[in-house]
């Protein structure tokens, strides 16, 4: 869901050392899971955002918030996902998610 540009940049940075990991991500996450039938991209984005907050993957959260916007989520929907994480992932995690969302949305505005 980060998009083809993100995938292309990651593939371009692949080295002999990182190739096995890049192959795993490309085939399992990007080509396998992302391409499955089922939830649409908006729903998948909500699931991914929640999982990233739950595990504190803050750098990835920013990447996937940008992708969520491209997948059709509105800023207020990203806020709602972040609000839900307060109950299920903890207030400090939700606080950090809101801060990242604020940064991502500010860069989108220009």
Can you summarize this structure?
The protein has helices at residues 4-12, 19-33, 41-55, 58-70, 75-88, 91-109.
Written account of the structure:
- The chain is an all-alpha fold and 110 residues long.
- Helix content is 77%, strand content 0%.
- The protein is built from six helices and no strands.
- It has helices at residues 4-12, 19-33, 41-55, 58-70, 75-88, 91-109.
- Helix 5 runs antiparallel to helix 6 (91-109).
- It is globular.
- The mean pLDDT is 89.
Topology:
Layout: H1 4-12, H2 19-33, H3 41-55, H4 58-70, H5 75-88, H6 91-109
Helix pairs in contact: 3-4, 3-5, 4-6, 5-6
Radius of gyration: 15 Å
Model regions low in confidence, pLDDT < 50 over at least 5 residues: none
Report the count of strand segments.
0
Q: How can the largest sheet be summarized? A: none
Helix content: over 70%
Helix and strand pattern: HHHHHH
User: What is the CA–CA distance across the termini?
Assistant: 22 Å
Question: What class do helices, strands and sheet pairing give?
Answer: mainly alpha
- Report the portion of residues in β strands: under 5%
The best one-word shape is globular
Average the pLDDT over all residues and give the rounded result: 89
- Alpha plus pi helix count: 6
